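ligand=protoporphyrin IX containing FE
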Amino acid sequence: MAPILDAACETLFEQWQAAARAGEVRNVLRDASALAQTVIFRGLFSRDVDDLDTRALGQALEVANDFIHRSAWSMVKLPDSIPTPSRVRFRRAMRTLDTIVYDLIAARRARSSEEGDLLGRLVAARDNETGACMTDEQVRDEVMTTFVAGHDTTAAALAWAFWIFANEPQALARLAGVDPDDAALGRTVQEVLRLYPPGWIMVRTPHRDDVVCGYEVPAGAPLLISPWVVHRSPTWWDEPERFDPDRFLPDRVAQRPKFAYFPYGGGARVCIGQGLADRILRHVIAGVASRYVLERGRNQVVVPEPKTTLQPRGGVRLRIRAR
Ligand code: HEM
């Protein structure tokens, strides 16, 4: 992934260089999305996906995500057969996604050479017992899951990091010149994800009746588990609203229970992309810290919006200055 990530950062920094020269205010959420999309899509498909596909995939995912979010929380459940305008848009977006993804799978199978990106590995994977490979539908499902789980979350995390740095310029300045493996940078990334966990809610459904901490939990009850709530609980965190990466110094981590902090979930369904997400965040933040100062407007507020992922409502508009 490293060359893909480097190239995506280079594109971002070229745009920001021009913005810094022009004194331009940019929507850095949009920039973060473009970068995350390029890295995730290209990482999955390497050279097979061009800029046109990247844009089309990104737009279709946005429509699909929005629809899923709204129908998941909606109090009114209309039968699937009613073609509301948002459903029509959703189905069109799904058709676009399917067309692009199935074409990519077919092209890859036709080449029959083994390639090391994720699509190559999915296509080449064999069942341990039967030796069968995955059907096109199975590969498609894996690809879609990775898209949906990977790009929005990473983009939101980056945008929240930029917003924090506009409020805490010293925190960014301290990272100027560090390399992506730096420990203080790692703690900064952890603290960003504590305050603004993109995966702000998870749902679990118990198979049988249970009692948890004295509460009766019937089988089938939807349990909502929120890192946002736990990460900001004064039970586990001193001054939980304050940005302080030193909370993640090893001796302080040792004093907290493991699940006081879980931006990537836990257990059997823990995020499989956390290594990649951490790499992207470290790489981009290290690059930004050495080059730029991010400035917010005097009375600017950014409101967290709990959509499928925790998004800054309306984006994050910041002025970019060269350091
Ligand atoms: C900062 C970025 C990210 C955050 C905060 C995040 C967060 C999460 C969380 C909280 C879960 C668990 C959901 C649950 O338990 O219901 C999850 C699952 C998952 N994530 Fe991530 N994620 C991030 C980036 C990524 C990336 C980059 C990828 C892939 C390229 C990815 C792929 C997945 C997949 C496939 C699952 C489902 C795993 C399973 O159910 O077995 N995520 N993620």
